[in-house]
Structures are given as C-alpha cells and as structure tokens.
Amino acid sequence: MPTSSAISNRFYPQLSDLITVDDLPDFLDFAKDELDSLLSSIHYKDLQHSKSARGDSAFYSLDIISPNIGVNLPFGLRLVLNPDTTGDTSISSFPISVQYKWELLAFLGSFELQNFSFTPDAFYQLGLKIFRVSDDQVFANVLTHFVNTSSPDINNLEQLIIDINTFYPSADLTLPTTPAPTIASVIALSNTSIDNLKKSR
Fold first, then answer.
1. Which sign, positive or negative, has the C-alpha torsion 160, 165, 166, 168?
2. How many CB atoms lie under 10 A from the CB of residue 46?
3. Is the pTM of this model over 0.90?
C-alpha cells in the first residue's frame, strides 16, 4: 500500500499551509500541538475559494487526500475508496466544501469601539445595518405585532396616533386623510412632532 511519502513526493500541500493553529479558537489551546501535527499530516489539492468584498460570506472547496484506501482482491485487483478522479492511483481524495454567511463580519472591519456612543439610538442604527432592514420595515413590524386596534373601524396607523396622543397629549398628532396615510408619512409626522417637542423645551 502506498505510504504518506507518496503524497509528499508529488508536492501536494499540507493543510497546515492553509490553516494554522493560530487561526483556531482559543478554547482549543490545550490541544494546539496535537492539532498542528494533525494539520501537517493532512494534504489537499484543487483548492477553490471566494470571499465577498465586505468579508461577510465566503466559499471554500478542496479535496482532502490520503494514500489510497482500499482492500486487495484476488487476481491482482484492488478496491479503492474514493479513487482520485485525475488519475493519480496512489491516492484517495475526499471533496469538502464549506460556505458561511455572517452579516456581522461585514461591520467588524469598519466598527470603531472608541467612537461608538452606546446610546439607544446608536444600537438601533447598528441593528438596522447588521440586519439590513429599514425604519419602515421596523415600523411595519411594530404596527403588526404591538398595536391593537380598539375598533374594527380603526386601522393600525390610526390606532397608533390615538395611542401616542393618549400617552403624550402635547404631541397632538393628527393623521392626514389626503393623501392616504402611509407608514412613511406617519414616521415623518412623528419625527416632526418630536423635533417640535425638543424645541419647545
């Protein structure tokens, strides 16, 4: 049976050239020596990879290879597990692909902790960016899940204005009837009211 030298003699790179122990999570520190030895003993070929410009998603594909794994059969035949498709009879190859998408990674590179204000609005704006949602989408979900109408003749937008005026009488909001009110117009109306309240203080 071919030995591991058959792999190294054909210049297949070691997995340790691609992944080092320093790339592994800290909780694996206790086994770094063993993992380093393991990564050095595994070889690969046909590496393909791509990464998004923002760094939030990536794709890796490669073949892990080993001396051919199989059993000898009568009449000089040999049954090989995962024989290499390129014709290298000395190895078995095992295709592996990994893909990830993590939105938060897109912001880690540009995120500056020392310039973050830690205010509720700062966290809210960060959440909008991470989850790729707009104010209108957040507002629509609030209307759907948290605003309960008191009458079948009142829609969610109208009920929201009633609730705001109930809890904050000085807001004195009036929902326009023409054109038909939309989420965007209600957001603009509430923002105007908030600005006026701040100026009156």
1. positive
2. 12
3. no
Cα–Cα dist 72/76, whole Å? 7
Rg (CA), the chain: 31
Between 156-167 and 135-146, two packed helices, what is the crossing angle to 10 degrees? 90
Closest CA to 159 of 171, 170, 173: 173
pLDDT in tens, 8-46: 456 788 888 877 777 666 667 778 788 888 888 888 888
pLDDT tens figures, 36-76: 888 888 888 888 988 887 767 888 899 988 888 888 889 88
Between CA 111 and CA 92 the distance in angstroms is: 44
3-class DSSP assignment, residue 109: coil
The single residue listed with the structure tokens 């809890």 is 167
Give, as one character, the DSSP assignment of residue 13: P
